[in-house]
Design a protein that fits this description.
Chain lengths: 685, 291
């Protein structure tokens, strides 16, 4: 008996203790409810209001919709495959139809695991709780947030039917890859309506909301399939499908939408476009205003650009011996502009938007190297009255720099060829002649020409600017070179033709306004020199690859092969291509030879231009009225006698001349074709 | 109040007390509550229904409301832009001249201008002033061009830019309309109360009416019409022309001629613009007369 007494005492104590604790818990819980209820967010009624936000649509110039911002494409449950509904319920909340906002047993279990198994956290959120969280709360984890979320879930359950809750849930969850809501996800991943999803497809989609990026099937297909297996297992456990059905599905590999590329086509372009729209109208209008944006993007050209960059960079990888699994790969950028308007028709800002969103086409300022020389040559022709047949000497140069060491630029090949005409000098990209020219014109004049043409990046007022030592963006280069293509008329580059409000009323439109910034005849003379770059100079790989249309351009390679450029144009389309590493690293091939603009960027340019201009009519550059052509010897700059001057002893160039220009005659600046300015200066000294 | 409690000293008494009605009731109620909660979720329902009652008084916070507010703010902004456009269109319809329209358009605000409206504005301007904007024949050609689709006006700080656009929004021709400059030009066209000698730019080139017209009428007829293409302005004035003068400033291919009328109300100078080349011929003649 005496033994029992202490035991009974303890039982009695425990009974009253638990009674007291339970009562206290009820009181505290009630107090918490009253206190938290005051600040709880108001619930919209009806619940379907949450999916009624207008969407901003972005269209390509070719008419197709390329992006929808804030889009959900809500669908009723009746238009969603029952497989998906079952899959999502089995995975997220198998007691959804029975509970009233909380799965108590699962919550208790999760609480136990969280409290007594350190390091482990088990989720127990029901679909209603997830909906409450997505609608009203941040993703910051806290017990208070969880409690408030629970209360809102109770209210949702009290005001809405299970079907309404499920409908709201499946129309607002994110599946990644820009897909919000099941209909959008179904269209993006499988190119079909949500109603037509098969068990294999539905179970794959149902697994994505757990971690849309981690399970993105476009990028991690096998990982997404493994997640699908988990979903199918849950469906079997819950009794929605048989084990055999699950096994059959596991054998299949759902075919993803092949138009995936189109759905996020021009991601870099769209990103740049959205940034501009946000700067102009603000985030609210762009993301929630339901505006319609008619962009300049041409989807056909954009696809070609993306494909050319991909292929081109793979070739560069191969040249450099970089394997697929290597972490660091060279990057590339491409911008294509319609020369007659300035409309940006294609833009690629990097190798892969999904791995790096940094837009190198717009934001990256890289040294253009010799790609900058056309601005120098224009300045020299205009300021010094030179022409393509003016003769200069390729020789070692030393240019005194005020307050610094002399500037001694060298040629790429470290050799000197003696006298040559300017057209040949640009075609072969001779640095010493460029240096002599900039000494005569002054760097400020070259900078002015570049600015007039459309270079907006900061440029240093030093001699070497003419050899491209100041960083510029591919967008700047494409825009500035297209000024040459239009005989000196500059068009501002732009992304948007028209913006409409949700009711189709025009709120903004682009007016194509050309501004004459260069002399048309001099501009044509420079274009003619740049044609020689492609036909017989540093960019002749373009012709070797079979691009036969009239085209002009300039290669560029920065010091130590850090950057490889090619910017070129036909009369209608101007494209700039850059290749290089994000961090300072040289583009050196396996055989220790540097990769130049002609080898690294020109092939990408050619591949793109061939596709881009596939069905375009053949057009030649228009020749200004005052221009006539004469044949000049590449060394003397004098006319080559006879009707058939092309013999072994002469290298002949066809030179466009202005009315007041003649071959082999002294110009207004005292320079004489046939006598190099360096020699003249020497004689004067 | 003090409750006197004695601990039982027999086990049977312990059991008797444990299985008392009160205890059993408490346990039973607790068990029913727990069981019924698990079975019927009454706790969730009560809380949910309670929260429904306070829904309307609670704040509109959280992601979904934020999106709603952003959408509403976007619509307000877009409506402002659309309303501004409508105002601009109304200004274009109601304006009586380019100056009127330019005054109403704020920098950045724009509207399309009907071709007939443009012609109306243009024709209400004095020919010489209108010619500084665009030569009449150039305008005729612009309106005849098949590719000219519309006229787009955009306000700026000085007045407005007028663009003649093709169907692809490319600018075929652009006119910068400077409000102040145009007003000054129009002011120069307005009659001046006073004498020719009081107007700067005419000194040294003032002649009596008789000398001036004698020289003028000695010119070939086609030259006279280039000199004074709209004599109606002179014919409409009361009084007689006592003096005539030639300005020493040329503007857009024209030179101002001043005609001083004397009548009962006093002196008044009326201006007309003549073609520069024709005025120079007249000037030569008049210089000869003077010599």
């Amino acid at each position: 008996m005496k033994l029992f007494i202490p035991f009974l005492r303890s039982v009695r104590f425990l009974f009253y203790f638990f009674l007291a604790v339970s009562a206290s818990c009820i009181i505290i819980f009630t107090f918490l409810i009253f206190s938290a209820a005051k600040d709880l967010p108001r619930l919209p009624t009806p619940l379907s209001r949450i999916i009624e936000t207008p969407q901003t649509e972005i269209f390509a110039v070719t008419g197709e919709k390329i992006m929808t911002l804030g889009a959900r494409d809500p669908v009723p449950l009746s238009r969603v495959s029952p497989y998906f509904i079952k899959a999502v319920i089995a995975t997220e909340d198998h007691r959804f139809w029975d509970h009233h906002g909380i799965n108590k047993l699962r919550t208790l279990k999760a609480l136990f695991v969280t409290l007594f198994e350190p390091g482990k956290i088990q989720g127990a959120s029901t679909i209603t709780q997830q909906l409450a969280k997505n609608l009203f709360f941040s993703f910051k984890k806290s017990y208070l947030r969880k409690f408030r979320e629970l209360l809102v879930a109770f209210q949702i359950e009290a005001t809405s039917s299970k079907r309404e809750i499920l409908n709201a849930y499946i129309n607002q969850i994110s599946f990644g890859a820009g897909a919000q809501g099941i209909e959008k996800a179904s269209q993006i991943f499988f190119g079909k309506p949500a109603a037509d999803l098969t068990l294999g497809e539905a179970s794959l989609l149902a697994g994505l909301p757990k971690s849309p990026t981690r399970y993105n099937p476009f990028r991690y297909y096998d990982r997404a399939l493994r997640r699908r297996a988990v979903v199918l297992k849950r469906m079997v456990e819950v009794g929605y499908i048989t084990e055999q059905e699950a096994k059959d599905v596991l054998k299949t590999r759902p075919v993803l939408n092949s138009r995936k590329g189109d759905i996020r086509i021009g991601s870099y372009f769209i990103n740049a476009l959205i940034n501009r729209l946000v700067a102009k109208y603000g985030e609210d209008v762009v993301f929630h205003g339901g505006i319609k944006v008619f962009s300049t993007l041409d989807t056909r050209l954009q696809s070609a650009a993306e494909s050319s960059i991909k292929k081109g960079l793979e070739k560069v990888d191969k040249m450099m011996g970089i394997a697929k699994q290597d972490k660091i790969h060279p990057q590339g950028a491409l911008v294509a502009i319609d020369t007659s308007s300035g409309a940006i028709k294609a833009m690629v800002g990097g190798r892969d938007y999904y791995s790096s969103e940094y837009n190198r086409a717009v934001n990256s300022l890289r040294q253009p190297g010799s790609g900058f020389k056309p601005f120098l040559y224009y300045t020299a022709l205009e300021k010094l009255g030179l022409n393509g047949a003016s003769v200069m000497t390729d020789q070692p140069v030393s240019i005194p720099v005020k307050g610094g060491a002399d500037w001694r630029p060298e040629n790429f090949e470290r050799t000197y060829m003696g006298n040559m005409i300017l057209k040949k000098a640009l075609a072969l990209s001779v640095n010493t002649i460029a240096a002599q020219l900039v000494e005569m014109t002054g760097p400020d004049a070259v900078i002015k020409t570049a600015r007039d043409c459309g270079i907006t990046s900061p440029l240093q007022d030093v001699y070497s600017v003419s050899l491209g030592t100041s960083g510029v963006s591919p967008l700047d280069m494409a825009s500035a070179f297209s000024t040459f293509a239009t005989e000196g008329v500059r068009h501002r580059p732009f992304y948007v033709w028209r913006v409409e409000d949700p009711f189709g009323r025009v709120i903004d439109e682009h007016i194509v306004q050309g501004k004459r910034v260069l002399d048309p005849e001099t501009s044509f003379q420079v274009v003619d020199m740049m044609e020689a770059v492609i036909n017989r100079g540093s960019g002749k790989s373009v012709r070797a690859m079979g691009f036969t249309r009239p085209a002009a351009g300039k290669t560029g390679t920065s010091d130590h092969f850090n950057d490889a450029w090619f910017t070129g144009f036909t009369p209608s389309l101007c494209t700039s291509v850059w290749v290089g590493f994000d961090k300072q690293r040289a583009l050196i091939a396996k055989n220790h030879v540097g990769i130049t603009g002609g080898r690294g960027a020109a092939p990408i340019w050619t591949d793109f231009m061939k596709t881009a201009l596939e069905n375009a009519p053949l057009r030649d550059f228009s020749i200004p009225g005052g221009i006539r052509f004469e044949r000049a010897d590449a060394v003397t700059g004098c006319e080559v006698a006879g009707n058939n001057p092309l013999n072994n002893s002469h290298e002949v160039f066809k030179i466009p001349l202005k009315k007041n220009q003649v071959l082999c005659k002294t110009t207004g600046n005292g320079l004489e074709s046939g006598i190099a300015p360096g020699q003249n200066q020497g004689e004067q000294k | 109040m003090r409750i006197h409690w004695d601990e039982p000293f027999k086990i049977s008494e312990w059991f008797k007390r444990t299985i008392s009605i009160l205890n059993l009731t408490v346990i039973l109620i607790a068990a029913v509550l727990v069981f019924s909660e698990f079975r019927f979720d009454w706790c969730e329902r009560i809380i949910g229904n309670y929260l429904v009652t306070s829904n309307s008084t609670r704040p509109e916070t959280g992601a979904v409301w934020k999106v709603g507010k952003q959408a509403s703010s976007a619509h307000t902004y877009l409506n402002t832009i659309v309303n501004e456009r409508r105002h601009a269109e109304r200004y274009a319809r109601e304006a009586s001249s380019f100056s009127d329209l330019a005054s109403d358009l704020f920098p950045g605000q724009w509207t399309n201008l009907d071709k007939n409206q443009f012609k109306k504005f243009y024709l209400t301007m004095p020919v010489s002033v209108a010619s500084t904007m665009i030569q009449p024949m150039e305008l005729v050609w612009l309106f005849s061009r098949q590719d000219m689709k519309r006229i787009f006006c955009e306000g700026n700080l000085n007045g407005m830019e007028i663009y003649f656009l093709d169907s692809k929004n490319r600018v075929i021709h652009e006119i910068s309309f400077d409000k102040i400059k145009m007003a000054q030009l129009e002011k120069k066209e307005a009659p001046f109360k006073g004498q020719l000698e009081d107007i700067p730019g005419f000194e040294g080139h003032i002649y009596t009416g008789a000398v001036f017209f004698k020289a003028l009428l000695s010119l070939p007829k086609d030259m006279i019409s280039s000199l004074i293409s709209h004599p109606e302005k002179l014919l409409a004035e009361k009084g007689r022309i006592v003096k005539a003068g030639i300005s020493d400033e040329a503007e857009s291919g024209y030179i101002r001629l001043g005609f001083q009328f004397n009548n009962d109300a006093g002196s008044k100078v009326v201006f007309i613009k003549g073609r520069e080349w024709a005025v120079w011929r007249l000037n030569l003649l008049l210089s000869g007369e003077r010599r």
